Amino acid sequence: MESTNLLEKTTERNSGAITARRLVVDGTSALVAGMTVAPAVSIIDRAVTESVSGRATLLGSVQSSLYTMVLRPHRFFIARPFAIMLFLYSSTYLSANTVDTASSIMNNKPADTVTSGLPKFLAVSAVNLNLSLFKDVQYAKMFGTTAPTALPRASYGIFIVRDCMTLFASFNVPQMIAPRLPPSVDGYISRLSAAQVATPVMMQIFGTPLHLLGLDL
After folding, report:
1. E strand or H helix that includes residue 74
2. Residue partners of 58: CB distance under 8 A and separation at least 6
């Protein structure tokens, strides 16, 4: 009996240690993913906001941001716009990674299992929507030409629709369409990776007009 209890306690400790390590990996991966995505998205969002407000042309804003990022990286990467975007995307990826880890543990599946169900969509949406709305308001205040004012409720509604579309395309659609891609794709990149890259980009065709409409209200 004592040996059985000892074995159970050892197993629980090992399981807890493994879970902790996986969560650390989830957090590190989320931060790296955020660092990868945040610079480009920060530049684009600033350019769109300044272009709509008439503060700068789209190309001029992009060139100015790229100049700062390349020649004065310390100013770009410690600035508030980048910090907001990094926090947004790192938190979003962390929530997605955590759901995948929890699902794999509860269902006794491999650590690299990727889920695509409603729980993941709801968890990621809860994190991303709130942070995205905060980001949109801050960018409008920082890069608009008018005095800082509250955004209309209609703008919030449009931003929520845009973000839900983007999240669904980023975290749910890839797992659905990857098996439908031609097997030949695996010769260059995994079908899941190809879908994860392609679907968010394609969704921007619909998301960008909504973003512009929300800023224009």
Report:
1. helix 73-77
2. 47, 48, 50, 51
